[in-house]
Specification:
alpha/beta; 11 helices; about 35% helix
Length: about 350
């Protein structure tokens, strides 16, 4: 499906976003670590995170979301979202969306308010069951750690389908295991992409991976694209900030042409060939995002491999606009509903 630009995201979204993306408000510094409000300790390969991030804790009597341990050894978990109870019916099963949050692999988690609210919106408006994965962060756990956590999440969903007595009740009672989608935003979309590749080699029966949803997918390479050069000083995700995220996330000593970052680096290899087996894919992006050229490159790569790809790419906007502009969010939810 050709990239069809739509109306520009509203200006009000930019105002609200700057209050949350703290690095977007500090135009005085060009240091990526200062923008991210992080301090890197190379001796321990660890990050001190000072960015103020709002989180949403769950009440014990929360009726629409709950936290479940995923892998105690890795200290990972999932946050499950469901529609309001009045809309639930054991007869009308719901699709499952396995979701991965953004943050450049180094920031945020499943309880971060922007991702909590986004997942709840998906669960309510589609409707669907959303399994949001709280994966390990880099640099303390560099890639492929997050991909391994994604596989844990896929197997966890499979286990709920097979354990009819002790499985998680929300999943067991309301999930349509034949309609499972893998979705992520930004770095989470990168995780979703690699999770789908790994899923092709897993026995997940009775779970069926029906599609892949990439929202503002985060990829890169050593060579700058035109959109990165044009938006070199972008206040929301400047290329220099992306570079630091990749430096902290990739295996030590790797460049941005590593296959985790640049899928075309293995276009004719194992992962490149597997990409052609993805059932269908929806890519969501904005021309105001420095990453847009890479997203379009990914669309073309998948289409050349025979993947059925749908796109929703808007004029204007910025990286993360969907979380702050109500009209854009409503349109995105509509696109998800049509795709699913």
């Amino acid at each position: 499906m050709a990239y069809q630009p739509h109306k520009q995201a509203t200006d009000e979204s930019t105002v609200s976003a700057t209050s949350t993306f703290a690095w977007a408000t500090d135009a005085a510094t060009t240091d990526p670590y200062e923008k991210l409000m992080c301090i890197y300790n190379p001796n321990e390969d660890a990050l001190v995170r000072n960015l103020p991030i709002s989180v949403t804790p769950l009440a014990d009597d929360d009726q629409n979301s709950k936290d479940i341990s995923l892998n105690p050894d890795r200290k990972t978990s999932v946050r499950i979202f469901r529609p309001p109870t009045a809309e639930l019916s054991a007869k009308n099963k719901l699709p499952i969306i396995i979701y991965f949050h953004g943050g450049g692999f180094i920031l945020f988690n499943a309880s971060s308010t922007i991702f909590h609210n986004f997942c709840q919106s998906i669960a309510t408006h589609l409707p669907a069951l959303v399994v949001s994965v709280d994966h390990r962060l880099a640099p303390e756990s560099r890639l492929p750690a997050a991909y391994d956590d994604a596989v844990d999440a896929l197997n966890w969903v499979k286990n709920q389908a097979s354990d009819t007595l002790n499985g998680e009740p929300w999943i067991r009672e309301y999930a349509d295991f034949s309609k499972c989608y893998i979705m992520g935003c930004s770095s989470g979309a990168n995780i979703a992409y690699h999770a789908n590749l790994r899923a092709l080699e897993l026995d997940l029966e009775p779970v069926k991976i029906s599609g892949l949803i990439l929202h503002l997918p985060f990829f890169g390479s050593l060579e700058r694209t035109e959109s990165e050069q044009r938006l070199i000083n972008d206040p929301y995700l400047a290329p220099a900030v992306s570079d630091v995220m990749w430096e902290l996330a990739l295996p030590v000593g790797s460049s941005r042409d590593h296959v985790y970052c640049n899928p075309s680096a293995d276009n004719d290899g194992s992962s490149g060939n597997k990409a052609g087996l993805i059932k269908k894919c929806l890519v969501l992006g904005f021309y105001g995002d420095p990453l847009i050229d890479r997203q379009i490159q990914l669309v073309k790569m998948l289409e050349e491999k025979g993947v059925k790809v749908e796109t929703w790419i808007e004029q204007g906007g910025f990286h993360g606009v969907t979380f702050y502009d109500t009209k854009t969010l409503e349109t995105l939810l509509g696109k998800l509903k049509l795709f699913i």
